[in-house]
Amino acid sequence: MLLPWLPTERLWRLTAALPEALPHAPLATSRxxxxxxxxxxxxxxxxxxxxxxxxxxxxxxALLPGLAVHPEDLAADAALLGWLAxxxxxxxxxxxxxPPQALVLDITGAAHLHGGEAALAADLRARLARHGLSARLAxxxxxxxxxALAGFGLAGFGEPEAALA
Length: 165
Hints:
This protein is an alpha+beta fold. A hairpin with a 2-residue loop joins strand 1 (27-33) and strand 2. Residues 157-165 have low confidence and may be disordered. The strands form 3 sheets. The chain has a 3-stranded mixed sheet, with helices on both faces. Helix content is 36%, strand content 19%.
């Protein structure tokens, strides 16, 4: 399971209670690399405008002047990933966090307990959505293949991700 928007969705979760918060306005996190200020993560709205991690802040501001930017917080992202790993223990005892933005669940022998792979994926996706989180889920014979498929938006066996949900 890849959580491509984890840093920005974590920020949305924190600011959702604020009246001035716009949960789906363009949002990014930043990091410094030597003297340069770079984007560390972007939300879907910012990505749709052409922004991407690694882009200079000057270029990002030129493309999207109203971009809300927060400093990256790797510890907070890791804490959320750890919390999610613990929560996924409901599906299988074999859950591994793969920092910075992925989890691997070994559902071998456990999927039938949740109504099968598709039902498990639908339940997982619904639970993540209730927490304001989105994920790319993929099924494969080994963790590396599953993460690769999720990275390309495939569910497994060359099928689109929607095939799991």
